[in-house]
Amino acid sequence: MSFSEFNEVYVWAWPFIILLSSIGLVITIVFRGIQVTQFFASLKYVIFPPKASCDTLCPEKQTISPLQAFLGMISAGLGNGSLAGMAVAMHMGGPGAGFWLFLFGLLAMPMRFLEVLAASVFTVETPYGKRGGPMIYLSKVFGGSVLPYFYAIACLGYCFAAASAMQSNSMAIGITTIVPGISSFTVALMLLLFLAYAFFGGAQRIIKLSEALAPIKVGLFMLAAGAVLVSFAPNFFPALKLIIVSAFSGSAVLGGAVGVGIQKAVSVGASRLFSATEAGGGTAAIMFGATGGENARSNSIMSMALVFTAQLISFCMFLMFVMSGTWNSGKTSTPLVMDTYATVFGGFGSVVAVVLALMFGLGVLVGYAFIGRECWLFLTRDRFGDWGFMVLYGLMAAYGAMGDPSSVFALVDITQAALILCNLYGLLMLLPQLKRAWNGLQS
Fold this sequence. Notes:
This protein has a single domain, classed as Amino acid/polyamine transporter I (Up-down Bundle). It is built from 20 helices and 2 strands. Strand 1 and strand 2 form a beta hairpin. Helix 5 runs antiparallel to helix 14, helix 9 packs across helix 16 and helix 9 crosses helix 18. The radius of gyration is 20 Å and the shape is globular.
């Protein structure tokens, strides 16, 4: 059985999807629809971020500001999971996967809120500054003697698979398609050199690169996607109808096969949404935990905007595929994205898609370098520095550039499922304490 088949049958199947939906619903009820009541406040904090005692990376504390945490997660969270990943979702689950992706996004927002709140409430002093995050708050629940280490190991695996391998794979496919004569090996070598530059500057250079890449890639996407959506504006309502109808019919047409089609759309929509947003997996908690627990209320509210941004970009990709008519071309990953942009930009469309893939991919490579580094330092207690992490992270980038897309994406889904299960277990156990802490922040 291949990675892809194992993922569909045993991991992102009905039981796991129902479990995630139930947890998202429980958090929504406990916090009284936080994703709705605090939606505009979340956007406000993005535009007017809360001030911190350190507005830039503090060398003496080794902490970052809330704005840096937000931009760092924009870089880490908005990657090719929102571009090539949506093309894979379209290919595997059809237009209906877009509907389920949007629906699960509404339940993912309170998960993101809760994990960042926990990272701000439960903090400790470490040899490399004040920290919060899953490795800290998981130690407060039953099984806390081993859960933080399990999580840190799983998170490292996710960094290697989702950030390093998957992003490199999407970038390599795009570059080798439009640049004649260049090999995947050459792309892998170029990515290794880029990562070496980022790593040798330490945490400060990593965060500064994340800050620089975040607004660039969001701006480029809005311009390119806007051009496609405006060009095919008359197809908006027919495309929306197809997405909704397909969500409940699947691609099959006979008997029980229809149920299989719906399950495929739901499964792919859910897995790609959580891959694009990383909600529930605790990675944002690691990033915001590096702020040292400052601005607990505003950080947790602001973090929901990250999920909404990824959700909006992902759904726009589905609309673009359907409105432009490229969704049933049989292509997947970066080639489908390239064909979609080519419908508006012609031969230049491939360049637009590859530039976006590069900006999104490089942002994730850099953003997750910080997250993975935090996990590595926790596991090694800073005894060996971060050289081992640098080497492994770089090697996975090289592997991803030369790997098969379906295997890479399946590996991402499997490692992410382990992260989500571990993190959400801890959050549920801490739910009463977090509710009390939230009430205290409101007064």
